[in-house]
Every structure is written in structure tokens, then in C-alpha cells.
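1st attempt posting a full record on here, be nice pls
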Amino acid sequence: MRQLISSSSALGLSCLLLAPGAGALEAPAELGPDPGAAPAPELDLGPSTTSTPLRRTRETYVHAFGTVALGRGLRFNNPYRLSTVLGDDSESLSLSATYADVGLGALLGQPRGLQHGAVAHLSIATDGITQEVASLSYQALMPFGSRWLVTGRAGVPVVLEPDLNPGFELGSGGAFMLGGGVGVGGELVFSLFYGAATLDHSASVIPLLSLQLGVWLDYEVLP
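the predicted structure (as C-alpha cells):
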């Protein structure tokens, strides 16, 4: 009897082991999201760096310069009978005094394009009577290549001594840069002054055409 029970038990166990899907332990099924649970909060990572291009801050280009020059001019009217006469009489063409000129200016614009700014000049006579002329001008500059600079300006000169007297002037010139911010240059300047009355005229008009040559000092602040 005991043998029969053991045999029956062994037979039942064999059938259980041989049943389809009963011989291996099944892995637990993956748990899906609970429909009743609250959704997880989304993290705010800020603006996407891939969709927004980086913007480069544009800086201002500044072109500063200074000039030191010697010049002399032609006077087209000589109402005061000045001594250096080139024509037939004392009222004709004459030479002005030699003068030293110092200029300082600054410009804004494109490094290789047209630039605009202002320049101040001070001219001091080196011979003859004591005379100083100060001027403030609008200045334009255009570079050509890596060495040439062409300039133009229009301004108001004021004679400080011997007698206070304003005028008007136009200048055009250029410079050739030698390197290291140093160059040589020149400027042709046309000036017009109104002088005091004389025995012949109630007021005198004195046009001047001057040429000055000297050194150009350059300093650029690139963006």
C-alpha cells in the first residue's frame, strides 16, 4: 500500500514537471505606471543652447591719432603790407610766417572703411610776430591698403594772438604708415580770415593756402 502511494505521488510530480510552462520559473512582469498616480514634475533646464544662437557683443572701433608738423603758407591778399612779398607790390601774393602745428583727434567707424570724428589743432608761428591759431574741425579718414591714409576736414580756426579773430578752413591730406603706429604725412589747408579795417578798405578778407609736412602717430582700438 505504501508502495502504491509513493508511486502515485511520483507519477503526479512527474506530470506536474512535464506540464507546459510549469517547468520554469517565470520572471515577474514589469510594473507599468499606475493610472491613478500623479504625473512626475518636469525639470526646468532653462533655454536650449542648441536652438538659441550665441550673440557676440559688438564693440566700438576707435581710431586715435596725433600729428606734429611744420608749415608755411601763401597769403593771397596783403592789406597790412607784410614784408615777405612775392608779387610786384605790397598788396600782392606774399608768404606767411613759418609755423609749427600739433594736432590730436579721434575717429569712429569701420577699421577698413570710412571713419568720422573730430580733430583739434594748435599752430604757433616760429618767426615774425607772436601768433597762435587754435582750430576745431570735423575730420574724415579713409584707409587704402595697410599703409595709406587719406584725410579731409572742415573747421573753424581762431587767431588767439595778436588779435582775436575767427575764420574758416578746409584741409585735405594723407599719411604713409611706416610701421608701429608711426608714419609721415602732409596736409594742404585753405583758410579764410576777416581782418580789421585799413585805410583803403572797411574790412579786409585774407585767404591763405598752407602746406604742412610732419609725423603721423596712430593708435587703433580694434573691436
